[in-house]
Amino acid sequence: MPITMPEGTTTAVAITIDFDAHSPWMGGFGLTSPSVLSRGEFGAEVGVPRLLSLFERLDIPTTWCTPGHDLVTFPDRVESVMAAGHEIAAHGAYHEDLRSLDEERERELMVLQLEQHLAITGLKPRGYRSPAWDFSAATMGILEEFGFEWDSSLMGREFEPYHPRPVTLAYESANTFGAPSPVLELPVSWYLDDWPAVEYIPGVSPQMGSHRVMLQRWKDIFEYARTRVDNALYTLTVHPQTIGRAHHIAGFEELLTEMRGHDDVWFATLSEIYDAYTDD
């Protein structure tokens, strides 16, 4: 199904920022030492301004997927993102592991994060990105229940939006699919994410990855999408505390500048892409 892009453009590029700050350390890894929390603070206090400056220079609209905890912990930074014209989307309450929650608790945390969005941004987010890009069996139904228009957490396509289907497992016969969700999936990829490539975590990621290898991978995937896929959606994900480091953001600027040089590329928020998509 096509994305109706501005005249002359054939590839949609969505630059998405997972503005996690403290929450991935607390909710994702269960780490709360001053050292790891300072890394989240760096993301908010240094990474965010660096990214906003870069996006302003290159005139690129972006979507910031932000947990409720980071909305209320760094409201001034969230305000600066909104003042620059960027979109804020939901990204969990405190970067919780949805797979560990029962349906009642997951729903409670959805209510909490939406209240925090309203309190800080004044808006209900149109889209959702799950913490750690994973769902429980209940997540899609909860997204439908709370009226989300799009999700950007799953990986059933590479460059095309789609409507996810629930899967019923049968180990000794074929799995079966349910009806497609009305929620539109704007797919992600671990290959198009800075965190697993270069974020050093002692005991978890024991080696520091090469940012040059990461940037070349992103470029190669972009060129494939632009030159070989009709009506492609290229969704790139970065984190302020990761991409905001000097050597990372300098290379990121090189890549975005090169992308910006193609007349057939449309930079858009995820909600703009949702609005431009048709199921017909």
TrEMBL record:
Gene Ontology molecular function: hydrolase activity, acting on carbon-nitrogen (but not peptide) bonds
GO biological process, one term: carbohydrate metabolic process
PROSITE patterns with a match to the protein in the record: NODB
NodB homology domain segment(s): 34-280
Matches recorded under InterPro entries: Glyco_hydro/deAcase_b/a-brl, NODB_dom, PgdA-like
Protein name: Polysaccharide deacetylase
